[in-house]
Predict the structure of Sugar transferase.
Amino acid sequence: MNTRYSKLLPGIVFLSDLVLLNVALYNSHFLKFNTFLTSDQSTVFMLLVNLAWVIVSAVSKSFNIVRPLMLRDNINRFLLTLIYHLLIVFSCIYFLKIENISRTEVMLSYTLFFFLVVLHRSLLFFFLDFIRKKGFNHRQIIVIGDRSIAQRLVQSFAQHPEYGYDFNDFISDEDIANMTADELIASLLEKKPNEVFLCYKQIDNELLARLVSFGNASMIKIKVVSDLVIDKDVNSVNLVNYHNVPVLHVNAQPEISLKIRVLKRSFDILFSSVVMFLGSPVFVLLFLITKFSSKGPVFFRQERIGKEGKPFYIYKFRSMRVDAEKAGPQLSKDNDPRITKWGMIMRKTRLDELPQFFNVLKGDMSVVGPRPERQYFIEQILEKTPSYRKLLQVKPGLTSIGQVHYGYAENVDQMRDRSRYDLLYLQNISFNSDINIILKTVKVMVQGKGK
């Protein structure tokens, strides 16, 4: 694959998204009505969805695939586009008074479309990553400026062949000092790079302006590399432009962007609504079995600590005897005599936690996030692991990477060990990682590996 074929990629992705959208629409219609033939209302709805997607996608450019390949960023951008699309479609349905549209069909359409696009993007990124490692679809780059910064950049590219960069030439700042700006530009034109990386601790503004103008005129990307080395303990780095002064905001504390917060909350509402709607027969069945299998209330309510240390009540199907904590706060353990026989089955499959989707809809929790704990145990954890306080900066989750890879804890030391997984999640929080955790949670439920 030659470099020029990359220019076709955005168009291919755009058309692929449109095809997947219609696959989702027609299959959802079939699942609901057992036919691919659409009524007048369904046809109007599908045309509206297609038109709105073409407009919103073209504006957001969610079909663009940029280097380096970052699947989670691309999925996040797509999901944000999908949310805008939903708002436009629902607004049109309301103002145009389009009636008799099945809510089930709409929900199925968007859910299926989302998962189809995630699968498509994953396969596409895997393919691009593979061929770039094989030496195809590469871009030629020239690095100019400070030698030490340039060496660090080239070394990074060498360690990551999936970036798809070939080092063409290096022009040191000593060489540049002995040539005019016109000579430098002529040299760059002769080598025909796709991108030019400027590695300077301090660059002449006039030279920078000339290079930027040259890049725009020649369709060559000009990129500036900072001499700043970010420490591994820094969790977030954001570039903010104060008029003409670019400033990096670095933070060791987790800092989740507004876009990610909006995406997570939108997904929480959508996913919880789908689970509670489609899973309502399961909820009723669990309610009845819990009611008649042991004495006591069906639901268990307990105070937990949420985001920013605010307490809230968590809901579960009761899996223990009513007097389980008459001796004070206790953690469950293997062969715990306080757990009922039916409760043991629910805990193995984690079905006892399904009512927490109500907590998610209320906004107390997220589908994925650190496990919510009681103040009694949090105080003990903080004495030995002060970094645990970072986990209180985000909403707790119905499931977490700690729950998947570690499981339930039987004492405070195990709770501290499990929190390390959640701290790692906090450093790499993204929509893609949330989906992976949800899929792994489903696997744990099917295999009955909870306790």
